[in-house]
TrEMBL record:
Residues 35-158 form the SnoaL-like domain. InterPro entries: NTF2-like_dom_sf, SnoaL-like. This is SnoaL-like domain-containing protein. It comes from Patiriisocius marinus. Residues 1-25 form the signal peptide. The lineage of its organism: Bacteria, Pseudomonadati, Bacteroidota, Flavobacteriia, Flavobacteriales. Keywords: Signal. Pfam families: SnoaL_3. It comes from the Bacteria.
Length: 161
């Protein structure tokens, strides 16, 4: 009888342990998927494009930058970032660090980085090329919708170096 109880207890313990390990593996996989979404966005900006970024955000995603409500992602691109990218010669990130926390169906990210923007000169306007260096931080909330992670909220801020 003791052997049966011990075997049952060990089987139950192994089952519970395997379930915990499986859940940890799932969370790790989900965290990596979230990080990939955020890095895809960062990479697009570094390439001075918004191509492929609209699918990373929900239609009603809210964007905040430097204490200002920018509106939806589409409004942010059309009224702010899109036109800005046309004035940039380059936009590079360095010392990039990201953390992701998943609590399905949501995830929360924090990003810390340095960035350097080189603005194009404009002879017609009499402006010369110049460089802006800043330290930035961003927080984003993502939701897993139909099997894909989408940004539903993003807030960035920076201070010039």
């Amino acid at each position: 009888m003791k052997t049966v109880k011990l075997t049952t207890l060990l089987t139950l313990l192994l089952f519970v342990t395997s379930q915990i390990n499986s859940q940890n593996a799932d969370v790790d996989t989900e965290e990596q998927a979230v990080i990939e979404v955020m890095k895809s966005y960062k990479d697009a900006i570094q390439n001075l494009t918004t191509d492929g970024t609209f699918e990373l955000f929900t239609e009603d995603a809210t964007i905040f930058e430097q204490g200002k409500v920018e509106g939806t992602y589409k409004e942010y691109i059309n009224g702010h970032l899109g036109p800005e990218l046309g004035h940039f010669k380059s936009f590079t990130f360095s010392d990039y660090k990201i953390n992701a926390n998943v609590n399905l169906p949501y995830a929360y990210t924090t990003e810390n980085y340095l960035y350097k923007i080189v603005l194009k000169g404009d002879k017609a306007k009499g402006t010369e090329e110049r460089t802006i260096k800043s330290k930035g931080v961003a927080t984003s909330i993502l939701e897993k919708i139909e099997g894909k992670w989408k940004i539903i909220h993003s807030h960035t801020s920076f201070k010039k170096l």
